[in-house]
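Tip: read the tokens left to right.
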């Protein structure tokens, strides 16, 4: 059950992980790369109103709503966090995006039939689940044979300090083992998929002034005034610290948009590859 903001206690705030905190602040939780990633998906896949898309770990619904801006395809967006889903539904309503269904579901056991979706979008979610192999198998099960999985994992490009990893693990309440691009390449290299295409990015470094302005802007949202004053102070302190921590973490990171398609039984490996010339 979602607790009313006015009933929140300092203990509630202390016990919350980052995803629960942002469901309260209503920060827009994007996939790595935000609009750039959505644009890469839209321009590379022929999405029509008949296309069925599953978005996993939608949070407050950003990717589903952004895709919907371009085409009113059939989208089911899932998350395990009730408060985020409630905010996602409210946002969809204000935009008349009735083509999106926001459902509480776990990627580890998807409540859908085999061969159901044309596209499955999973942003930076594999890093958060208890068994990513099982999650990937579930995605494969509900994906159509000619479909695509778009996965957008983040990874370190520079070795982080142990203290940074420990702090981020505490903030998201998941014990992180630093992952590098080669780890994701091996994870997606299975007998079931072809890597159709990949796009690699490095995160921008954002200066402190911009980070402070962002935090102040989010924390000035009027709905937060329903929270009791000492609890709000605790929320502000925790949120500000977390955002600064994540930005520092991102300065060591990049991400890849992997376009994966199920292997066709008849298709042998490609030798007809090339590099683009100028
Ligand atoms: C970092 S946010 C994702 C933000 C953005 N939508 C993206 O694609 O990267 C991770 C989201 O995944 C959700 N999540 C975590 N474990 C999940 C699971 N087992 N099944 C579905 N969603 C999950 C969290 O509640 C959270 O909202």
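Filled-in amino acids:
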């Amino acid at each position: 059950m979602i607790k009313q903001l006015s009933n929140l206690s300092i203990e509630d705030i202390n016990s919350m992980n980052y995803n629960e905190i942002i469901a309260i602040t209503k920060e827009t939780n994007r996939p790595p790369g935000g609009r750039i990633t959505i644009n890469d998906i839209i321009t590379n896949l022929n999405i029509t109103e008949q296309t069925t898309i599953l978005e996993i770990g939608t949070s407050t619904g950003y990717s589903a709503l952004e895709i919907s801006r371009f085409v009113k395809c059939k989208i089911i967006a899932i998350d395990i966090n009730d408060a985020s889903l409630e905010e996602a539904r409210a946002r969809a309503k204000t935009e008349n995006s009735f083509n999106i269904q926001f459902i509480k579901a776990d990627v580890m056991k998807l409540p859908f039939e085999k061969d159901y979706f044309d596209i499955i979008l999973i942003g930076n979610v594999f890093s958060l689940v208890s068994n990513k192999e099982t999650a990937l198998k579930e995605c494969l099960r509900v994906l159509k044979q000619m479909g695509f999985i778009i996965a957008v994992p983040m990874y370190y490009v520079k070795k982080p300090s142990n203290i940074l990893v420990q702090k981020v693990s505490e903030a998201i309440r998941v014990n992180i083992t630093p992952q590098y691009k080669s780890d994701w390449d091996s994870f997606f290299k299975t007998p079931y998929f072809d890597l159709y295409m990949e796009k690699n990015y490095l995160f921008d470094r954002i200066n402190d002034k911009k980070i402070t302005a962002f935090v102040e802007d989010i924390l000035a949202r009027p709905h937060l005034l329903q929270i009791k004053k000492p609890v709000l102070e605790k929320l502000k302190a925790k949120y500000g610290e977390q955002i600064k921590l994540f930005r520092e973490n991102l300065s060591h990171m990049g991400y890849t948009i992997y376009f994966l398609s199920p292997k066709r039984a008849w298709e042998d490996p490609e030798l007809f590859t090339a590099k683009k010339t100028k």
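Residues 5-262 form a domain with the Rossmann fold fold (CATH 3.40.50.150). The longest strand covers residues 193-202.
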